[in-house]
Design goal:
The complex is a heterodimer of chains A (169) and B (331). Chain A is an alpha/beta fold. Chain A is 26% helix and 29% strand. The chains are: A alpha/beta (169), B alpha/beta (331).
């Protein structure tokens, strides 16, 4: 097993700048930020802090929208989604830690639309890794990684945030 | 124990939900945790999650019910399942069809879950033992035996107001003898570990030997309510008067009806619950039922969330991989 720890700080700093640019590109759409439970929320709260956004951070728990429920059943602990704002006609910055197959983002977008009709969704991910199974791409990326299907990258946190790459045996 | 518990699958997950008896504290807490997640769904623009899309759930009611059936129906619909309501008392059994024939007919329609209410104790257990392996059975009330989803929605309601069960004194008041709700509540409250459980009612309506299940018995309402955090009132069924177990509605109300004066013996922040439908002026005074301490209508909305949790959990056990759930998502 090979593990490699990476610093997350710099990537988040860089992402905050990119998020700012995306928000500014659509000045007529008021932005809100939503993190995907749990790793996505950690990353989102760091960016949210750096941008000093006045709307509180939202959190999505996509457990009820997963496409593998009939295969793996209920997730043991499901903390409720919290979107303390109206997303109707807003610009939603959706944040996750790792973009891999794209299935989580598909589920998250389905859930978002059950809260309303956003004007736009921008996707921000800390790690954009290879292995997509759906036509989904990130607008904001901390780092791009080409990994084999047997390799996994995982964010640990929340204090401190660190990335671990593992090869599953 | 686990081997013979028909409610659990081989991994210890909830497969059928038939009674509180036989389920441990962890599992009851998991139901309450899941229910809390589902409670938020009812407050959204789209009051639906796609969890049970494509599943067919049959409400099989051999006994009339409004709130239990409608909240099961709403729960199923909020999970995106298709729902079939079958009122058996006005259906095929009148034409002489046996219960098993009815079940097999429904199985042939590829149903995934039966919610069963029946006047005979043990009916849901019996059905759970007979259905095809992919089908889950939920007990919506059987005879005098149990009504586990009602008990769990009451536990959910208590937890919303008083999060620590180990510090609570709870009193169940009224017709304990005929009440499946009371039986399930007693199992749930003792399993969750309340500090003290009391049952209060006339001698004719309290089963002898009930102390063995855990509660302290009181025959005086004022004394029994002394210092309690939660008061659970039970519905008094009119036929009990006719069977000479009680003198009159008027006398029952004067002794066991919950009035503001009697409620004053409980803690000032005590909550008052009732499974409904309520008999105003028989077991509960209107000013209490509609008062500040009453959480009776909250119980109804919590019923939907708790039933969603139980339906999702029992359907989720079809997934047979066992360990895959722990890893979480990384994509």
């Amino acid at each position: 097993m090979h593990t490699e720890a990476m610093s997350v700080e710099g990537m988040i700093e860089d992402m905050a700048g990119q998020v700012m640019a995306v928000i500014k590109a659509h000045p007529d759409q008021s932005p809100v930020m939503v993190g995907i439970h749990t790793g996505g929320t950690w990353v989102a709260s760091e960016i949210h802090k750096r941008l000093a956004m006045d709307v509180p951070l939202g959190e999505l728990n996509i457990a009820f929208y997963r496409d593998d429920f009939s295969r793996i059943g209920m997730h043991p602990r499901v903390s409720p989604s919290r979107l303390p704002f109206d997303i109707e006609d807003r610009h939603v910055i959706l944040v996750d830690d790792v973009l891999y197959t794209g299935r989580t983002i598909r589920a998250a977008m389905n859930e978002l639309f059950d809260y309303g009709r956003p004007a736009r969704i921008s996707l921000a991910v800390l790690i954009d890794r290879s292995g997509r199974e759906l036509p989904i791409q990130a607008d904001i990326t901390g780092k791009t990684m080409a990994l084999n299907p047997g390799e996994h990258v995982k964010l640990t946190g929340p204090e401190p945030l660190a990335l671990v790459v593992k090869e599953s045996g | 124990m686990t081997q013979t518990n028909i409610q659990l699958d081989k991994n210890g997950h909830l497969k059928h939900f038939l009674s509180i008896y036989g389920l441990d504290r962890d599992l009851l807490m998991r139901i309450l945790d899941h229910a809390r997640s589902f409670a938020g769904v009812g407050e959204r623009a789209v009051k639906k999650v796609p969890l049970l899309r494509g599943k067919t759930i049959v409400n099989l009611f051999f006994e009339p019910s409004t709130r239990t059936r409608t909240t099961f129906e709403l729960a199923a619909k909020r999970l995106s399942a298709d729902v079939l309501n079958i009122n058996i008392s006005s259906s095929a059994t009148k034409k002489g069809e046996s219960l098993l024939d009815t079940l097999q007919t429904l199985e042939a329609m590829h149903c995934d879950m039966f919610v069963v209410r029946h006047a005979k104790s043990g009916a849901a257990h019996y059905i759970a033992g007979k259905v095809a392996p992919h089908i889950s059975v939920i007990n919506g009330g059987d005879g005098r035996h149990s009504h586990p989803t009602q008990a769990m929605l009451d536990m959910f309601t208590i937890r919303q107001h008083k999060p620590d069960f180990s510090r609570l004194k709870v009193a169940i008041v009224g017709d304990i003898l005929h009440s499946r709700v009371a039986r399930s509540e007693i199992h749930a409250l003792t399993t969750l570990g309340v500090e003290e459980l009391r049952v209060i009612g006339p001698r004719t309506l309290i089963p002898t030997g009930i102390e063995a299940m855990g509660p302290r018995v009181f025959h005086n309402l004022e004394q029994g309510l002394e210092d309690v955090d939660v008061v659970i009132m039970l519905r008094l069924q009119h036929e009990r008067m006719r069977s000479a177990l009680l003198p009159s509605e008027h006398e029952y109300f004067s002794l066991y009806g919950l009035t503001p004066q009697k409620l004053a013996n409980a803690k000032p922040d005590a909550i008052v619950m009732h499974p409904g439908p309520i008999n105003r002026g028989i077991e509960i005074d209107s000013s209490v039922a509609d008062g500040k301490q009453s959480v009776i209508l909250q119980q109804v909305s919590h019923g939907i969330a708790v039933r969603m949790a139980v339906m999702a959990m029992t359907m989720g056990t079809l997934a047979d991989t066992g360990t895959a759930t722990e890893s979480g998502h990384e994509d």
